[in-house]
Amino acid sequence: MNKITIIGTGSVGSTIAYTLSIQGLADEIVMIDINGEKAVGEALDIRQGTPFCSSCSVYAGSYEDAVNSNIVIITSGVARKPGQSRLDLAQTNVNILKSIIPEITRYCPDSTYVIVSNPVDILTYTFCKLSGIPEERVIGSGTILDTSRLRSRLSEYYSINQKNVHAYVLGEHGDYSFIPWSLVNISNVPVEEYGASILHPDTIFPEFNRAELEDYVRKSGARVIERKGATYYAVSVSVCHICKCLLSGIDTTLTVSTMLHGEYGISDVCLSLLNVVGPKGAHSKVLLKFNEEEIAALRNSADCLKAVIAELTI
């Protein structure tokens, strides 16, 4: 029996609960929010549709109701406003997380925690430092969404199934993320050679443009927020994919945010590398072979996060 608790029932938390119920990933979903009436309403709305999905108990509850959860997902925090960076949110959302940590870990000491609130790398770091939960069971959603955005864009470029696109966005979930282009390929063909490798006279692809693709990935969230006020569908599907991997019997590699301990010369910061994720949490990292430019970009991402952490009260 899989039990998942979601703390925060705003657009992201509620959509995660809805998606979990649709996908049949949980038998029991607990929804917790400082606004108890909002949590009750969201849970009731989702629960009334479950007869057409997999059997699932969805209800609003307290921290005590979260006991024995396999996974706890944290989405609480102040949402990012148009024109605001994720890092502008840092101290406010750190303070919110600090108030949540002792409450939830008292009842869920053995759960795996998935941090979704922004700035996700800072909050994942905060949770690692203050919770006492083993680091392999503290996972930030990191650049899994950025990676999905990159793969979807490349699939559009070349009209190819997204499952044939192998590419990662790594580092900070934000302005200082980077794409290790030396590793990007479509069905084992280096991405910049793929268009020319297609032997079909009527196939014309757009000119490959790294800068355009990087700009698309970095600004996708802001573009959605500008148009509809918030992002929640894609991030919710991404978080549910993390949950699916955690509940699966076999490991999967994901670009999630975890604590670093000397990898690529980086320590004491959380950011996204390729991690092995499964029933034991994010228990291993895959050390990819970056070129010098990519290592520099990763270290720059780490330095920018550390500079923010140094200014916070954690």
Structural description of this entry:
The protein is an alpha/beta fold and 314 residues long. 41% of the residues lie in helices and 21% in strands. It is built from 9 helices and 14 strands. The strands form 4 sheets. Strands 3-2-1-4-5-6 form a 6-stranded parallel β-sheet, with helices on both faces. A 3-stranded antiparallel β-sheet has the order 7-10-11, covered by helices on one side. A hairpin with a 2-residue loop joins strand 13 and strand 14. Helix 1 packs parallel to helix 2 (36-47) and helix 3 crosses helix 4 (120-131). The chain is globular and about 60 Å long. The protein starts with a strand and ends with a helix. The model has no long low-confidence stretch (mean pLDDT 94).
Short note summarizing the structure:
With 314 residues, this protein is an alpha/beta fold.
Write down how many β-strands occur, each being a DSSP E stretch of 2 or more residues.
14
Shape label: globular
Total of helices: 9
Flag low-confidence runs. Answer: none
Q: Averaging pLDDT over every residue, what do you get?
A: 94
Looking at how many chains there are and whether they match, the oligomeric state comes to single chain
Largest beta sheet, briefly? 6 strands, parallel
Gyration radius, rounded: 20 Å
Into which percentage range does the β-strand content fall? Answer: 15-25%
The helix/strand order is: EHEHEEHEHEHEEEEEHHHEEEH
Helix content: 40-55%
- Strand order in space, largest sheet: 3-2-1-4-5-6
Which class of secondary structure composition applies to the elements?
alpha/beta
State the end-to-end CA separation: 35 Å
